[in-house]
Amino acid sequence: MTQIPLSLIQRTAEELMAKAAIEIPEDYLDGLKRAAATEDGDLSSFVLKAMLENYEAAKQDRSAMCGDTGVPRWFVKLGNEARVEGGMVALEAALRRATAKATFDVPLRPNRVHPLWRTDHNNNVGIGAPEIEYGFEPGGCWIDLITVHKGGLFGTDYRMLFPSDGVQGIKRFYLDSLMAFGKRGLACQPAIIGIGLGGSKDICMSLGKRASVLRTVGSRNSDPRIAAMEEELKDLGNSIGMGAMGFVGKNMVIQCNIEVGYCHTGGMPMSVHAFCLSSRRAVARLYPDGRVEYRTDPDWFTDYQRRETVDWEPHKEAAE
Amino acid sequence: MSIREIRLSTTPTPEAITALRLGDIVYLDGLMYTAREGVYMRALEEQANIPMELPSESAANFHCSPAARINADGSFDMGAVTATASFRFAKWLPEWMAKTGAKLIIGKGGMTSKDYKDYFVPNGAVYLSTVGYGTGALLGRGVENVEAVHWNEELGLAQAMWVIRCKKMGPFIVASDMNGDCLFERENAKIAENIARVYEGTKPAVLKRYGESDDRSEEVI
């Protein structure tokens, strides 16, 4: 089995760090352009126009879109047959090196500090930073490197709801999150809103985060009833009358993505996450022969990731 | 309503400040410095000497950590600059203004009208908000030069005091005025009229949390 070269992983990871910081993903850009075309609040319109100019300026100047370049993290997906030169410990070292190097080279803001001692290594690397999370996919000798630099201390919340709260309770908590963090634009909206439903507390937060950062504008949950709820919640958020920076406007939510996981029979935990106006994500697929394919859609939530049966049934995959 | 665009010095005259209206778009010229919790704590709580002549060199305090680096030869490279949320700094700002004569507080999200009335207006100061948020690349184009970085060793790159020479740096939005009025509160009040309709049919969570209020016209900051 041919291995994916370590040098290729580090080189690609550095390139992804720069792409994420500088280039706004096309799906979000198109969504924001559609929002700008419908916006009639004078201040929110001005803000959206300024943001569109800002994306252009960032690309032309090869400068980060936003001065807060977020907290870099990695999602790594491996095809089942993928092998990495030096193994997974070497891969993690390569991702940490790429994070540190790109922080200096781009430059990115060194955002990562110790929570108590505020120690800053000036390279976005430290205890637990960058996070590296893994997923696997049946078949394939490739790996996907996905980097997300989510910004924002605001716009994210968690709540333990219960079955008796129902859909109306979900709507209430969703609206509460948008209202609380939308005022003064603390959530840097209009944004992709991710909602996690189910799982345990920590997984509920992960699901919501992944829904906001690993799914694109225009994507749909594969469960048609959840997909309908995504549309409904998007429209509900945009009916508040709040726009960019919390000014009067019609555009708060560019896309609403919901991801679910099975939870305790007594509960219905829910999390809400707002990605921001600088939705920093970049993806590359690396093959053992040295090929690298860049894209902006993480394509994380495959049928395999959302499987609910005991065994994965490969014949289903083949039929598709 | 047409939006006014204004060029403003970072050492503005009282007349120039009085002339600003909520929602005006401002572009800045002159020296600006970054100061946030690290600088405030060092200057105010530890009583370290501020390494600039304030406010004669600059009366513009930016709540910002830039995406920037210090090169091996001591030169600087600054890419994007974006503000951080200001409400967290209310604890230090009255003393900071008194000590430094800051007239322009620039950041994200503004402060409350109470802050404006209590110590912005008496100090002849207004609040300018960045736009977006996150027009970091546009603001970066307004950086003519990075003049100095103070307290980098003590505070790290993100909390250090960066001194920036601005040339038509913007856009910023005027978010407070000499009446102590607050642009964001004005907008909140307009949006509040619609809240009951949007919430119609939804219901409060079965399990309450400490600190909850059912009055959605309140802010959580």
What does this protein structure show overall?
The complex is a heterodimer of chains A (320) and B (221). Chain A has eight helices and nine strands. With 320 residues, chain A is of the alpha+beta class. In chain A, the strands form two sheets. Chain A has a five-stranded mixed β-sheet, with helices on one face. A four-stranded mixed β-sheet of chain A has the order 4-7-5-6. In chain A, β1, α4 (87-105) and β2 (132-137) form a beta-alpha-beta unit. The mean pLDDT of chain A is 95. Chain B is α/β, with parallel strands linked by helices and 221 residues long. In chain B, 25% of the residues lie in helices and 25% in strands. Chain B has eight helices and nine strands. Chain B has helices spanning 14-18, 37-45, 93-100, 113-120, 136-141, 152-155, 183-192, 195-199, and strands at residues 5-9, 25-34, 60-62, 68-70, 76-78, 104-107, 126-130, 143-150, 161-174. In chain B, strands 2-3-6-7-9 form a five-stranded mixed beta barrel. Chain B has a two-stranded antiparallel ribbon with strand order 4-5. Chain B is globular, with a radius of gyration of 19 Å. The chains are: A alpha+beta (320), B alpha/beta (221). The interface between A and B is large, with 68 and 61 residues.
Key structural traits:
heterodimer, A: 320 residues, alpha+beta, five-stranded mixed beta sheet, four-stranded mixed beta sheet, 8 helices, 38% helix, globular, B: 221 residues, alpha/beta, fumarase, five-stranded mixed beta barrel, two-stranded antiparallel sheet, 9 strands
